[in-house]
Amino acid sequence: MCYWCMPEDSKCEWVKLVNFMKIYNEATAKEFVLKQCLDVFERTIPQPEILAEDKANGEELVVEHKIVSWPPDHLQKHRAHHLFMDTFAEQLRNEFTDDVYVIEVNAKDVEVAKRDTLRIVGEIAVLIRQNKDFILTNSGASNKTPIPWVFRRVSDYERDEEDVPDAGVGVVINKDEDFGAFSDLNMATAEKAVQEMLGKHLQQASIKFQTFNTHIRIFVTEAYSNNALVDNELIEKVVAKINIPENIDEIWVGLPRWVSEYDYVPYYRRIK
Asked: Are 209 and 247 a contacting pair, CB within 8 Å?
């Protein structure tokens, strides 16, 4: 399976790799802990992202972490969605406290530069505030300025979902999803792209590992996509076709382990 949402945003990859390290320690009966975020403190030479040390015996390992994103603009668009959602909720969270409301917009209209997102949200927020009495009386309003949008009270049938709060403001972004696009052409295109991406990532990791010959050298990756074809199974299939550099000792792939319809915990599996 693949991840839909974005990876953690941090200068040190350790934030993104804490769960991996926990699973690695459980799988190997080790006690590795972070020793240094290498590429944060030394940027003049190529280095892997983290250095970890086993508390029990002083053994050390290094990890290079890279994600595979498909389509190429998937994360860029997803960040734009998050920016719109977060900014809009912040603008109006205190304006409507009597019930649950959502704004609906089309994805393509909010996949814009940050400055345009801030402008769009600001203009919509002004219009909603100006028409607050109308919205409270009529359960909603709509407009085509600056982009088409509908702001409405959440209907009763939508409240069956467990995560709907008693009051607040939310965002619905309507997308033209490719999640179920399973044609042979889509599969071939995705597989070729993932193989090229992974091949480049592995070669770059090999260069970074050159001065760590006495360490365990691990490459970790995950798939982020809006298409179910691009997942951990595709990565495993592609890795089997790639000539893996000799100085990469282990490859681990991440996948979400679902604990409910909406929630998952990160999990990792060794594939080399």
From this structure: yes
Q: What angle do CA 248, 251, 61 make, to 5 degrees?
A: 60
Tokens encoding 163: 């995560």
Report whether 77 contacts 69 (CB < 8 A).
no
Could you tell me if 110 and 147 are in contact, meaning their C-beta atoms sit under 8 angstroms apart?
yes
Averaged confidence pLDDT in the chain: 86
Instruction: Enter the tokens of residue 100.
Output: 């649950």
Q: Which domains are present in the chain? A: 14-71+196-270 (3.40.1350), 74-174 (no CATH)
Closest Cα partner for 186 from 230, 223, 221? 230
What pTM was computed for the model? 0.75
Q: What does the alpha-carbon distance between residue 248 and residue 250 come to, in Å, rounded to a whole number? A: 6
Residue 77 identity? K
Q: pLDDT of 52-65, one tens digit each? A: 999 999 999 999 99
Q: Which two tokens stand for residue 172?
A: 């619905």
pLDDT in tens, 139-179: 999 999 999 999 999 887 777 665 677 788 999 888 765 54
- Identify the three-state secondary structure at position 257: strand
Residues 152, 101 contacting (CB under 8 angstroms): yes
* Sign of the C-alpha dihedral computed for residues 35, 39, 40 and 42 taken in this order: positive
Give the pLDDT means over successive 10-residue stretches in the chain (272 positions). Answer: 49 83 96 90 83 96 91 83 93 90 92 94 96 93 95 81 76 70 63 92 96 97 81 90 96 86 82 94
